[in-house]
Specification:
This protein is mostly helical. It has 2 domains: 139 residues, no CATH class; 160 residues, no CATH class. Helix content is 48%, strand content 12%. The protein has a 3-stranded antiparallel sheet with strand order 1-2-3. A 3-stranded antiparallel sheet has the order 4-6-5. A hairpin with a 2-residue loop joins strand 1 and strand 2. Helix 1 packs across helix 5, helix 2 packs across helix 5 and helix 5 runs parallel beside helix 9. It is globular and about 60 Å long. The chain starts with a helix and ends in an 11-residue tail after the last helix. It binds coenzyme A. The site of coenzyme A (COA) has 17 residues, from helix 15. Coenzyme A binds next to helix 15.
């Protein structure tokens, strides 16, 4: 969705009767709506991070005579912050694809169906992800969302000796360990499976933003999903690293992955292999230095938006 359309849709909703009603609900509590919305900047994927905002919303509902948990307060807070975000210099640094995709997700906050209302519950992970997005700390690239972080120093200690040289070389090519783009699976992606062409399209959307955002040193990912050990058992998942490997990226492992981290959740093959002892989940680490990622992107004009090609 285009930036201008998103801006006008969010603004129109903030002027609407449901938005005014939600605002009045927040005013029933002890926190002002604007102050409470500003607290979204401290919310992360970690449940503890919303420990301050959850009681404030519950208190407002209680003081309003037991207002229903219908997501209306959460929606107002997120839309209020998102409307401000669209005009910030940080948002202007997004490439066209990430801008359109992130705008689409922010505009989806206005959808008034049961699924959206449930998703907005302040105690849930979707609310926390949206809090990051509405405050310019998480962006959409389609199949993957991404945020900005650094390569953890603790990973260095866990790189197998055979890969230390490659790791050091990749970090040197990045010119430092932060800031880098870090991907997350988009929980509301179109297909449940991680397949092409959505993988490359998503990486291309990130590369387009990387090109405009000079401080970013590249891309780093760490997950069971990225591990060559996982790909030996589930070869189809090697597709998530394939464009990166082909584009000069570096892949290693950084120690065991906890069996309850999600690796066994969807796959009978991985579960059976784990139980039989033939699969030990590990965390895969991927580093893709900026210039390699951009070279890959430029060598795939079919993945470039028309205006960038
Ligand atoms: C990460 C995740 C989205 C990948 O999903 P995926 O692309 O479908 O790949 P999976 O290997 O998990 O697929 C699960 C099953 O669907 C099958 N499958 C995968 N792609 C398929 C496709 N395109 N069509 C049909 N079946 C497919 C797989 O073969 C696998 O079957 P199995 O029981 O024989 O192993 C999924 O595993 C998941 O949601 N995991 C739990 C959450 C999690 O850990 N997320 C964090 C990751 S960083």
């Amino acid at each position: 969705m285009r930036l201008e359309e998103t801006r006008s849709r969010l603004a129109a909703w903030l002027d609407s009767a449901p938005a005014s009603a939600a605002r009045r609900l927040i005013e029933s509590g002890t926190s002002s709506p604007e102050w409470l919305a500003s607290r979204l900047t401290t919310v992360t994927e970690d449940p503890e991070s919303s420990a301050g905002i959850v009681p404030a919303i519950e208190e407002a509902r209680r003081r309003a005579g037991g207002a229903p948990e219908d997501g209306s307060i959460e929606r107002w807070l997120l839309v209020h912050q998102a409307a401000q975000l669209l005009d910030t210099p940080g948002f202007a640094r997004l490439g066209g694809a990430c801008c359109r995709l992130t705008c689409g997700e922010l505009a989806s906050l206005l959808e008034d169906d049961d699924a959206t209302r449930r998703m907005l519950a302040v105690s849930g992970i979707r609310f926390r992800e949206f809090a990051k997005m509405a405050t310019g700390r998480r962006f959409s690239a389609g199949l993957f969302h991404w945020d900005i972080c650094g390569v953890s120093r603790t990973w260095l200690a866990r790189v197998p000796p055979r890969d230390l040289l490659g790791f050091t070389h990749a970090v040197a090519r990045m010119g430092g360990i932060k800031p880098v783009m870090f991907p997350h699976i988009n929980p509301r992606r179109a297909s449940p499976h991680l397949t092409e062409p959505a993988i490359s399209a998503s990486l291309a959307a990130m590369a387009e933003t990387l090109d405009r955002w000079a401080e970013l040193r590249g891309f780093a990912a760490a997950s069971w999903l990225r591990s060559p050990d996982t790909h030996r058992v589930s070869p189809h998942l090697a597709a998530v690293n394939a464009p990166i490997v082909a584009g000069g990226g570096f892949v290693t492992t950084v120690g065991p992955a906890a069996p309850d981290c999600g690796v066994l959740e969807r796959s009978t093959t991985r579960t059976q292999s784990y139980r039989s002892g033939s699969f030990t989940p590990t965390i895969g680490l991927v580093l893709w230095p900026r210039r390699d990622m951009l070279r890959w992107w430029r060598s795939h004009p079919e993945l470039m938006p028309a205006e960038a090609a």
